[in-house]
Amino acid sequence: MTLGCQMNMSDSERVASVLDAAGCEKVETEEEANFIGILACSVRQKAIDKVYNKIAKWNKWKDKKNLVTFISGCMLPSDKERFLKLFDIVFTMPELPQLPRMLGEYGIANPLSLIAEPQSPVDEIKLFWKVKPKYDSKFEAFVPIQNGCNKYCTYCAVPYTRGREISRPSDEILQEVRELAEKGYKTITLLGQNVNSYGLDKNGHEINFAQLLEKVGQMGEEIDNEFWVYFTSPHPRDMTTDIFHIIAKYECLGKQIHFPLQSGDEKVLIKMNRNHSVSKYRETMHALREILPQATVFTDIIVGFTDETDEQLENTRKVMEEFKYNMAYIAMYSPRPGAASYRWKDTVSLEDKKKRYAILSEELAKHTLTYNRAMIGKTVKVLVREHDRKEGYLSGHTDGKLVIRFQSDNEALIGQIIELKVSAAAKFSLEGELVTVPAEA
To answer: Considering only CA atoms, which of 184, 92, 170 is closest in space to residue 141?
Structure first.
């Protein structure tokens, strides 16, 4: 069971690979398993609540059968301490290569139980990155490029769950991206807690994020298969205009930018310890719009942060009105143990947080609907991802990650990049009609 962000999803693919190599066989249901676990997310309380519900159920099963439980993922030290009393095996993601040895200690024989112990946390994460993932999808993949965070935003627990920033060797990243692209993967997402600070921890002994994107772009020109490369999540403090110029230069670099705002009020940003101003963010946004006018822009926003006033919320709404985002992931603030703001009184009521959430959601919808309606009549490339909820339809996303569906029952289209003519628009989705179908479908 995997909870949390895309990084946890990517981590789960490496866990699956290690378990396969250790001789474990995947079963269809929890009830059939003799070894079962969770990749947790201490960043959100709801995710931790799910962990406690699951382990309570699994521990009851131990009265009736042999069962070994494990937990990993993003864990605060306080959560990890409690989990040690509830789960049989508790390990951090960098300790994943040691999992076979841990299994051996519980009597689960496997060929990898004698793997050598790493000597330091850096060695641990390097060994982890060398684990070849067992990708969940045949056409979409996540590639981690760095781990940890040095920013210490006051609302965030990630520096305490993932540790300090460590960049993965660029040659490993580029090799993994090339292998995926040559195998026919259609989207590849570069992952990190702060992707655009990539390489800064290496003191000039590694390329930076813009240079990494340049090498990926050059790779795209060498490979015949069409694919799109995205990245998440960047920090405004490290976002430079050369990144936009490189994305504009290469067709394989997806024309969608995730650019977290968090708040449109200067005082709230200071209290969040974001280390950037609204004016600096605006300056970067103007450069983005000028250099990449075709790009869609997604953002993250927190409402109801400690002591946020109605006037400060209005400042955020005005920034949303100014930048007209294509998507905003709006979250109601909740204190997390370990984060600095946990020590502060949560002064905004849940009722007010819900009201503010509704205000910003309405503001977002106004602009997404206008943008989507302007797409009607245009022909766009689309990666078909799955069956749509509407019967007889398939759905996917554009190069800019706008969701679009179309009428078809041809399952061979799933995992292919096709062309659709946009015929209708809603607040958060499009509808289209088939224009071209690749020969392989």
So the answer is: 184
Percent of the residues in the chain that have a pLDDT greater than 90, as a whole number: 68
Whether residue 251 contacts residue 297, with contact meaning beta carbons closer than 8 Å, is answered with no
Tokens, residue 243: 């990144």
pTM of the model as a whole: 0.85
pLDDT above 70 (res 145): yes
Rounded to an integer, the average pLDDT of 177-202 is 95
Beta-ladder partners of 394: 387, 406
| The pLDDT of residue 304 is above 60 | yes
Closest by CA position to 245, among listed 217, 203, 280: 217
Please calculate the CA angle 298-434-296 and round it to the nearest 5 degrees.
Answer: 15
| Total residues belonging to the chain | 441
What is the fold of 123-374? pyruvate-formate lyase- activating enzyme (3.80.30)
Tell me the CATH number of domain 379-436, given options 2.60.120.10, 3.10.150.10, 2.40.50.140, 3.30.465.10: 2.40.50.140
pLDDT at 113 over 60: no
Domain ranges in the chain?
A: 6-120, 123-374, 379-436
Contact between 180 and 225 (Cβ < 8 Å): no
Euclidean distance between CA atoms 350 and 86, whole angstroms? 31
Strands (E), 217-335: 228-232, 256-258, 296-303, 327-332
Tokens of 12: 């789960």
| pLDDT at 439 (0 to 100) | 67
